[in-house]
Amino acid sequence: MKAIHIKLWRDLTRLRAQVITIAMVVAIGVAGFVGMFSVHESLKGSRDAFYRDNRLADVFANVKRAPVHLRERLAALDGVAEVKLDVVFDAQVDLPGVEPPVTGRFIGVELARLHSGTQGLNALTLKRGRWPERNNVLEALVSDRFAVACSLNPGDTVHAIFNGKRERVFLVGTVASPEYVFASQGGAPDDQSFGIWWIDAARMTDAFDMQGAFNQVALRLDAGKPEAPVLEGVDRLLAPYGAIGAVGRDKLLSAKIVADELSQLKVMGTVLPSIFLAVAMFILNVVLSRQVATQRSQIAALKALGYSDGAIAWHYIQLALVIAGLGALVGMGLSVLIGRGMLGLYDEVFRFNTLAYVTEPWLILTSLLIAVTAAALGTWTAIQAVVSLTPAQAMQPPTPPTFKPTLIERLGLGHWVSTGVLMVIRNFERRPLRAALTVTGIALAVALQISGAFWLDAIAHIVDVQFRQVQQGDVLVNFQRPVPLGVVQDLNRMPGVMAAEPYRSEPVRLRLRGRSEDTVLTGYRPDAKLMRVVDEQRGAVAMPAHGVVLSALLANALDARVGDHIALEFRLWNQVHTEVEVVDIVHTMFGKLLYMNLDAMNTLARDGEGVANAVLQVEPQSMGAFWAAVKAAPVINAVFDKAGSMANFNKTTSRNMGVFSGILTLFAVAMAVGIIYNAARISLSERAWELASLRVLGMTRAEVSVLLLAELGAELLLALPIGAATGLGLATLMMQLMSSDSIDFAVVIEPSTYASAALIVLAAGVASALLVRRQIDHLDLVSVLKVRE
After folding, report:
1. Mean pLDDT: which of 168-182, 379-393, 524-538, 669-683 is highest?
2. Distance CA 83, CA 785 (A)
3. Comparing C-alpha atoms, which of 745, 742, 612 is closest to residue 252?
4. Which pTM does this prediction carry?
5. How far is it between the farthest Cα atoms of the chain?
């Protein structure tokens, strides 16, 4: 073994504590990169395979009621390869042992094609049980995710209200559908109150009086054919029958949610690991700069023995590569734990045929390359000046730095501060770059903690705005078809109902200056209290007597401003075309939405004063009797229970965000310890002679420790406010990178989040300081004072 290899082993052994802390930071960066991107690739691969194997359609459209003979005209559109017509209706479902009714989306399916294995588009995968049979009882399939959430099993019996008639439904199997990987009424996880059901297509058409008709169509396009002309053709054919608007797969709610999640994983897998690897590069640079500076005589001896500059440089780069390699190895193992844990959370939200964790070889190679490159760069900048010295120059101690009075001393204020404080100030001024980088590293640890914890604040803010400010009522009900306003008085007579307010939602198409958007127009009464429009800055907004109110997202999409006149087309019923004035723009949290006064909306629609929705306020102690009355009301086909939805939302989303925040907290602590401990160790190695001299002169261990650690404490305190500001910036950046055209809410960070982040990093700093304090207490004064650089 060559002498330089023996030296490498001895350096690693002597620096083992610093090697471990630096490798830990590298490991976290590698784990974040590999883990996040492995989850991304696993999720994407499972999605793509599911869509391909189960033949998810490319274009979808809903219509009020269209004749089935349109199939041929739809199939004749240029680029259309396959057409699937469905009958789909929402219905109230009464589950055994469950007090509130839930909403079921019932879809007709051809039983013969199920049994023959020729389902066509949007094919189902049987998870449990069997396919339905056509007999005297109504047999059904249900989405597997809903069945698990509601403890339903093949053989169970439920009741549903079909077109005003209560029907007994026998569950015979659970399935997964590519069309409903994520099933929700409004975008949030809702497995306990919203499920997808499939029954015999013939029974479906009879139950809802849809003989010879359909209300949903799915199309598969020829490979390479553009989507836009097909969308226009479908809209043109379906427009006379009350079309809501054709959309591509990317606008399908389930597919969009999955795609947004994949985009967010890419952001997380890029931004956060970059921070850790940059910090690791900085620590390596500082540690090896100090290592090289203390080994000038050894470098001179190696050169005298014939080692070239390149061999010596490679020795120190090897030292860094061993640290990076150790970190990468640990990071690979940690990435599996992180990846499998995150994929388990996704498995509770999304339902594919299979969802297995896979790490692609390119991820491993890329992570190794990034870690090695960061280590090599950090090392080379530290050693390039010293390794080029001649042996004679290297044998000489480095040129002493030129010292001068500090700014405070030059201003004549030096006598106002203690000697210890003055020593700290001098160290800051004489090594400003190192101090700045240390402060920056600690600030990044604070920022990382904030950027992880702010998601919990965001979830709490969403819950507060959506469930407490916007929807102040307890229950939303939907009617099968528009009903007279007098029905609202009937709702007031239901058990426990304290107030009931009607509202109306209709699909519309807007056009302005060559742009168009399909959206939903919602009409509220001017005195509405149970369901309101809430602007994030202004609070509740009353509906004006005329004109429309646009959400900011919709206004941006149309480039609309207050005072503009927008062409509005009702897609259902009388299909009125009219023009309305934009009278206000509100910053709501979700969706491209449109609002107006209910009376004005009914006047524009010219179809009477009917409503299809109502929001109710119910006495908590009367909920049992109220739910029993709802189950007996044939006119109600869908129900939204705010309390149940909030509980389900908190159970899934808040828990998942809590796990993610906890992981980032551990990472932030590890990074803080790595930075602070190494900064303290380097400072100790540089000032050991000075501290030992002070001990000989009579200073106690505690006094000497304060002199060394006070600088660290000052850097820590300086980093906290910078870290808070950086955390806000990092959270804002992540929100912008993850944003979509359906989300519009500001970054909300509570004071408690800033405080907890600061306390966690302070605790990490104290722990690191105590470790270094032990080494100060055990300084060998004789050995230290014998060697003076």
Report:
1. 168-182
2. 88
3. 742
4. 0.82
5. 102
